[in-house]
């Protein structure tokens, strides 16, 4: 067997292994009701609307209808909507897993392009797959910035191989993922402009893409999103420590640079649960190899908007290692760290440095699964424990109840149940009811967005209301149906 064939077998085996691992995390979470109205439910409901050639009105999570693009300008959902006909409510989770697997392959292609970096290609791919930000993202619903981050290695590869048309097309595909991705992309293009500053063609292309990305970001956030928003404003400037808007933030960063840097490390909102959350992120990134990027500063430059959008945020949950909020580090560290390692002249040092980087990435991800400073739901990510594959109620029984609800019925569903029912014209996150024909809830689930007392009072009121008939109820969940819609209640009973 020749080397190329054996290497192909290894690559396919690695990709298959991580496809299984990610599937056991993400798809099992969905089956076990560990995905939620925000964000998988809302985005899956958007797939339904887009495949029916209509805009989504955000009423899954908003009392007053508003174009979903006013919340996040995410065009991926339009592109992916036809897949919902094949994969149902699992569509976006499957797309996300495939994107990450493709991203790792892009890392491999980047390093296998040149003979001098080929020896680290496989290890760089493993590093990407094992990075803690990838596991955290896979364990928490679907987000289009995960897909965009997974496309980035291919953009690096096309730029390196001087495939200009492919580079421009891929840049556009990354930009349309979400409005904040375009700002990140402008920094990426500037960083690459520095890296390829001696290549006249690439210099022109990257400068054009930088200007286009920056223009796109300003245009979308300042013009398009406010124009379709009910409040006539961009909704996601949550950085009160910097000012009231992007302009004030820029002025603050320029006039108070030392204070801004300090805030990257401290609990600047003084939340009692936020101490050491930033420190944990910094420590994990240091162990992941970020100090090596001093030799490749362009990669540190590309991380500026990631750091800023995470660590200046008003919500401390954004600062930490949970969810999709660290995924952008994955491609930059995988390519940056292994670019430095590939420059080592002594082959043995290069080999063992690559092994060490992969080993540390694995150790960090295991730690994230096992023990973190910031509270995280470990059952969502601990695929090696039995608790990941079960709940404190009969999951299969609830799936049977869900399957018997009419496909076009209007439903008010508690957050964990909503994604499974969201491929329909109208569905609301409980306690929003409006014109719902069915209400689904469970006392064993988190009462979000209510507190426990409010939730219990709401549920008791509905169970005793003459407007609703109890269609199904046990210790695990309750399904109510609007009484005025029932001609013969007994004929509709779900058993």
In whole angstroms, the N-to-C terminal distance is 59 Å
Strand content: under 5%
- Shape, principal axes of CA atoms: globular
- What's the helical proportion of residues? 40-55%
Spans of at least 5 consecutive residues whose pLDDT stays below 50 are 487-495
How many separate helices?
Answer: 21
Counting structural domains, the number is: 2
Strand order of the largest sheet: 2-1-3-5-4
Number of strands: 5
Main β sheet profile: 5 strands, mixed
Quote the average pLDDT: 94
Radius of gyration: 24 Å
Give helix and strand order, one letter per element, not per position: HHHHHHHHHHHHHHHHHHHEHEEHEE
Provide the structure class: mainly alpha
Description:
The protein has 495 residues and is mainly alpha-helical. It folds into 2 domains: 340 residues, no CATH class; 98 residues, no CATH class. Helix content is 55%, strand content 4%. The chain contains 21 helices and 5 strands. Strands 2-1-3-5-4 form a 5-stranded mixed β-sheet, covered by helices on one side. The longest helix is centred in the first third of the chain and has 29 residues. It is globular, with a radius of gyration of 24 Å. It starts with a helix and ends in a 13-residue tail after the last strand.
